[in-house]
């Protein structure tokens, strides 16, 4: 296997220097199989650069020493590949002793790491675990070879950690090559054909494995005509991608169109209960597995924003999902069925329809009717990836269904990779939200996070029963992968939170900084770290301050969704309204007087959100319509809060921009990267001012209430 390092592509969090600690040491890799080969190649390449050595014992070879009679510094071994060097045997025995007779095995993707007698040992039951263990050692760097450490058991909290690419094969006339993509073209497709640039796909797989992702969907959930054919006659294109990602333990999934039996199979119907339709799915799926034996499964957006679905045949979404699930089941595949179903042709005059309610209204009653290999993929908020939304009530409403939570790594509504907006703090809040209050499970548990090393899920589920975490990818063919170089941190954080949801976002940022910026650590690395934390830790809240206030959402330019337009969606069919008038603003979603959405939550949240006094400030306008002079829990009035946060938000962007300036010429970051971020910060500042002025002017004009500080509002 040849490892690929594209010359003009930024290495993101895997620059060669990140492997210095490993590359300068003597390593034994013990085990066989393709993923173990990947581990060995990684170590070999690092050693070629930094002077270390790697040895691969054959099964009948043993020993604790290199051929030159020196001890190993690092042993990476499959637990069943024995006999292992004495120190690894000891670590294994110690791990078994600690976990006790009923404790967990190391697990499919897990690993144990320890350091004893000057040797760092990584043990895994499966090769994928060894690969994750290797990248853990990379993350630790030099400290991996420092003080002794007792066996630590790491395993992913979520069984499936998937990135969905909204990449089109053909350039879509409105959405382009990548729908909501802000990092150039697709890394998979160009102008109707595969790019052929498979080295880049391989490099992508490597980056993903190093942050914990293990599944990728290669085409947009909006399946257009050309893309539909990936399932049948263009399956070879998918197989080529799968071949590049496989060495990094990443499985390929496909977005499939629900009408495929008609569109591709020429059948008169796609009715999920029709025998010919079932047969068509079964046969098509069998062919997929003949070509890609480790294929992950399908992702389906049905009856949503114009995509076909079971409603056309009078069937429900359990009928729809189950026909695909049955086709996949013999091969161990899963169908990710999206819960993003709502009426996008609503009459704005109709106050009884509430888009926030839609997913729960459609899906809650179907709980228990889905096959085991159906994963209901639920957007984290009830509307659509806004900067601030409550957690979707669907996540708590489906105890008998596997639920995956979908996050948007691509920054459609959070600055489109022109603004710095580190999203891990938002995701961490989502994952930590406890729908039944402090004593109940968190969202991360419901999505499958039992096996996270911090105990069993409180709801008693066995590890890995949940659906996992899904992110809409922010990657394109841009030299920095993500357009904004600092948006790489979001991709990295997505993988790390899917692996370990309780990790502090600031700690994840530290990991990312240390890996990404090692190469030019000629400058003041601690200074760089401080600057990046100041710029990024609170950047999501900063973004929230200068955009739509208090959970109101949208207020973006229709279509492309960049920049402010307070009434842009107010009189459209999309169901995203704020109802501002001269007296007040917000959506009444209470049971008492509004749409009743608050009733979709279990207590305590059904009561907390219902109550004007108890509803958290940041979600007030999501749940209530209030007068401008309404006093928030924080003490300020709604209108004064709007003015204050918008002035502060812009000041914070200005500060970030000046801070970045202090890094110019210091050598802490490469000059080209510095220049790219500088330009983007100029744009962020411009855009933030535009947001501030439009929002403030709009609400001043509506309310007539002046700013108590008398600041200029145009
Ligand atoms: O946020 C919206 C986007 C659409 C997207 C849709 C979805 C892929 O504006 O571009 O379509 O969500 O999640 O399906």
Please characterize this protein's 3D structure:
The chain is α/β, with parallel strands linked by helices and about 725 residues long. The chain is built from 22 helices and 20 strands. The strands form five sheets. The protein has an eight-stranded parallel β-barrel. The chain has a six-stranded mixed β-sheet with strand order 2-1-3-5-4-6, sandwiched between helices. Helix 12 (about 395) links the parallel strand 16 (about 375-380) and strand 17. 4-O-methyl-beta-D-glucopyranuronic acid (GCW) binds near residues 221, 222, 305 and 385.
Largest sheet: 8 strands, parallel, barrel
Q: Tally of extended strands? A: 20
User: What is the CA–CA distance across the termini?
Assistant: 62 Å
Shape: globular
Helix content percent band = 25-40%
The distinct ligands, each listed once, are: 4-O-methyl-beta-D-glucopyranuronic acid
Widest sheet, order of strands? 7-12-13-14-15-16-17-18
Helices and strands: which structural class? alpha/beta
Write a compact overview of the structure shown.
Helix content is 34%, strand content 12%.
Which helices and strands appear, and what pairs or packs with what?
Blueprint: H1 20-23, E1 26-30, H2 34-50, E2 53-55, E3 74-78, H3 86-99, E4 111-116, E5 119-124, H4 127-140, E6 149-154, E7 161-164, E8 167-172, E9 176-178, E10 189-190, E11 193-194, H5 198-211, E12 215-217, H6 225-228, H7 235-245, E13 251-255, H8 260-263, H9 275-291, E14 297-300, H10 317-328, E15 334-338, H11 358-363, E16 374-379, H12 394-397, E17 402-408, H13 424-432, H14 443-446, E18 468-472, H15 488-499, H16 505-516, H17 525-536, H18 539-546, E19 584-585, H19 605-610, H20 620-623, E20 626-627, H21 638-661, H22 671-703
Parallel strand pairs: 1-2, 1-3, 3-5, 7-12, 7-18, 12-13, 13-14, 14-15, 15-16, 16-17, 17-18
Antiparallel strand pairs: 4-5, 4-6, 8-9, 10-11, 19-20
Helix pairs in contact: 2-4, 5-7, 9-10, 15-16, 16-17, 17-21, 18-21, 21-22
Bound molecules: 4-O-methyl-beta-D-glucopyranuronic acid.
């Amino acid at each position: 296997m040849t490892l690929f390092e594209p010359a003009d592509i930024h290495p993101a969090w895997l620059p060669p220097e990140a492997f210095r600690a490993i590359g300068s040491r003597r390593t034994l890799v013990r085990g066989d199989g393709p993923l173990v080969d990947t581990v060995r190649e990684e170590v070999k390449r690092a050693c070629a650069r930094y002077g270390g050595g790697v040895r691969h014992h054959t099964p009948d070879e043993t020993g604790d020493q290199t051929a030159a009679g020196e001890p190993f510094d690092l042993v990476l071994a499959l637990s069943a590949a024995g006999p292992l060097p004495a120190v690894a045997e000891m670590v294994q025995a110690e791990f078994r002793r600690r976990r006790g007779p009923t404790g967990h095995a190391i697990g499919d993707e897990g690993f144990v790491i320890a350091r004893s007698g000057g040797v760092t040992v990584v043990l895994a039951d499966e090769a994928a675990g060894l690969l994750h263990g290797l990248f853990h050692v990379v993350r630790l760097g030099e400290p991996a070879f420092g003080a002794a450490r007792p066996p630590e058991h790491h395993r992913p909290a979520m069984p499936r950690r998937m990135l969905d690419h909204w990449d089109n094969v053909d350039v879509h006339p409105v959405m382009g090559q990548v729908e909501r993509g802000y990092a150039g073209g697709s890394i998979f497709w160009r102008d109707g054909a595969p790019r052929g640039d498979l080295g880049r796909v391989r490099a992508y797989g490597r980056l993903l494995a190093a942050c914990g992702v293990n599944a990728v969907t290669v085409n947009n959930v909006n399946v257009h005509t050309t893309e539909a054919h990936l399932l049948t006659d263009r399956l070879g294109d998918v197989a080529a991608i799968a071949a590049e990602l496989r060495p990094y333990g990443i499985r390929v999934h496909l977005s499939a169109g629900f009408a495929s039996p008609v569109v591709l199979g020429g059948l008169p119907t796609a009715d999920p209960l029709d025998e010919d339709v079932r047969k068509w799915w079964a046969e098509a799926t069998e062919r997929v597995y003949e070509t890609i034996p480790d294929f992950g499964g399908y992702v389906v957006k049905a009856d949503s924003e114009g995509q076909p679905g079971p409603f056309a045949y009078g069937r429900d979404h359990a009928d729809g999902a189950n026909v695909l699930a049955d086709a996949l089941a013999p091969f161990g595949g899963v169908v990710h069925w999206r819960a993003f179903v709502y009426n996008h042709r609503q009459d704005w005059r109709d106050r009884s329809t509430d888009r926030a309610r839609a997913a729960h209204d459609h899906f809650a009653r179907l709980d228990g009717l889905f096959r085991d290999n159906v994963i209901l993929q639920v957007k984290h908020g009830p509307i659509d990836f806004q900067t601030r939304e409550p957690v979707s009530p669907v996540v708590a409403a489906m105890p008998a269904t596997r639920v995956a939570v979908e996050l948007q790594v691509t920054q459609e509504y959070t600055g489109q990779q022109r603004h710095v907006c580190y999203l891990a703090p938002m995701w961490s809040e989502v994952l930590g939200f406890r729908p039944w209050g402090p004593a109940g499970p968190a969202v991360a548990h419901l999505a499958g996070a039992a096996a996270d090393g911090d105990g069993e899920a409180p709801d008693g589920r066995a590890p890995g029963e949940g659906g996992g975490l899904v992110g809409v990818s922010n990657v394109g063919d841009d030299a920095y992968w993500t357009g904004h170089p600092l948006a790489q941190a979001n991709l990295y954080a997505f993988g790390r939170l899917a692996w370990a949801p309780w990790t502090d976002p600031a700690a994840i940022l530290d990991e990312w900084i240390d890996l990404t910026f090692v190469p030019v650590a000629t400058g003041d690395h601690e200074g760089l770290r401080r600057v990046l934390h100041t710029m990024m830790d609170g950047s999501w809240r900063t973004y929230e301050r200068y955009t739509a206030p208090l959970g109101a959402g949208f207020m973006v330019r229709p279509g492309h969704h960049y920049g402010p337009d307070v009434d842009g969606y107010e009189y459209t069919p999309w169901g995203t309204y704020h109802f501002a008038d001269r007296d007040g603003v917000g959506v009444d979603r209470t049971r008492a007087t509004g749409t009743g959405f608050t009733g979709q939550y279990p207590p305590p949240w059904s009561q907390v959100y219902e109550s004007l006094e108890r509803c958290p400030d940041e979600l007030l306008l999501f749940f209530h319509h209030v007068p401008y002079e309404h006093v928030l829990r924080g003490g300020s009035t709604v209108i004064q809060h709007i003015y204050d946060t918008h002035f502060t938000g812009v000041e914070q962007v200005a500060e970030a921009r000046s801070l970045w300036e202090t890094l110019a010429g210091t050598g802490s970051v490469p000059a080209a990267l510095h220049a790219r971020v500088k330009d983007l910060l100029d744009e962020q500042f411009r855009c933030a001012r535009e947001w501030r002025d439009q929002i403030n002017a709009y609400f001043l004009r509506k309310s007539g209430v002046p700013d108590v500080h008398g600041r200029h509002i145009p």
